Amino acid sequence: MYKQMVLASTTELFMGSPFRLGDNPHPGIGSVEDAPHNTVHSWVGEADTPHREDMGTFYTAARDPIFYGHHSNLDRMWAIWKTLGEGRRDYSDEDWLDSEFYFYDENADFVRVKVRDCIDIKKLGYVYQDIDLPWLRTPPTSRKSKLLRQRKKDEVLSSKPIKFPLVLDSVTSVIVKRPKKIRSREEKEKDEEVLVMEGIEFGSDKFVKFDVHVDDDEERLSNPDETEFVGSFVNVPHGHGHNITTTFKVAISKVLENLEAAEDDDVLVTLVPHVGKGDIILGNVKIQFIPRESKD
């Protein structure tokens, strides 16, 4: 939860990349949709059914009553995320605000609703209970020393470099050059450093999942509550088997600081496939900077 809510410090990282007519139809989902949204769908879906029905596939998910509690909880996470500071806010893009959806209301009348009509939950007539959030005060920690992490990085640097695109069929480690290693406090407040996995290709009907680790040890990979584990990519099967090409982004500014690696020239990225080994093609891994939202 800390990684999905706190590390995802920008709207794009939390909610996903913008999608407009003519764009790639799968520009990249945000942390809240990837996990816990997709992850919980997959956990609850039955593994012994053809397509992990009900929750584990798009076309049957709403047949399970937990679907509605799950999505209400995701709405709650959205409401919480906006209170965590660092300039967090909803998209202000007019294209997004004016996006329209059509429904039959409680009187069976056909109505049109815009996104801008649904952002303020108080205007919709509800608020969420104010409860304790233990994940907010328990940031991940590392069991590994900086010396061990550097040794593992040196081992990968001295080995044969990975060539992209690659089929992700086993644990794979790559060295990724940082575009800028020394940044002032103002620069860090302005831009989030982001690890970008681009050209992720797989079949839409495939359940695929892989984890991403930074400066970790393949022989003793960190757990989700440790700093080196930075996120998971998950796809909930849907459609009729067409290919999807998308992007996955993970914030690493706080990660590098916690690992005492903020001034390193590069990072060691380890990709760990769990489901769908061999079903995923990865185009490239790089680092870029994403502007944080203004605090004004």
From TrEMBL:
GO terms assigned for molecular function: catechol oxidase activity; metal ion binding
Cofactor annotation: Cu(2+)
Keywords tagged on the record: Copper, Disulfide bond, Metal-binding, Oxidoreductase, Thioether bond
Chain ranges of the Tyrosinase copper-binding domain: 64-75
PROSITE patterns recorded: HEMOCYANIN_2 (PS00210), TYROSINASE_2 (PS00498)
SUPFAM superfamilies according to UniProt: Di-copper centre-containing domain
Keyword Metal-binding set for record: yes
Annotated PANTHER family: SHKT DOMAIN-CONTAINING PROTEIN (PTHR11474:SF76), TYROSINASE FAMILY MEMBER (PTHR11474)
Sequence similarity: Belongs to the tyrosinase family.
Full protein name: Polyphenol oxidase
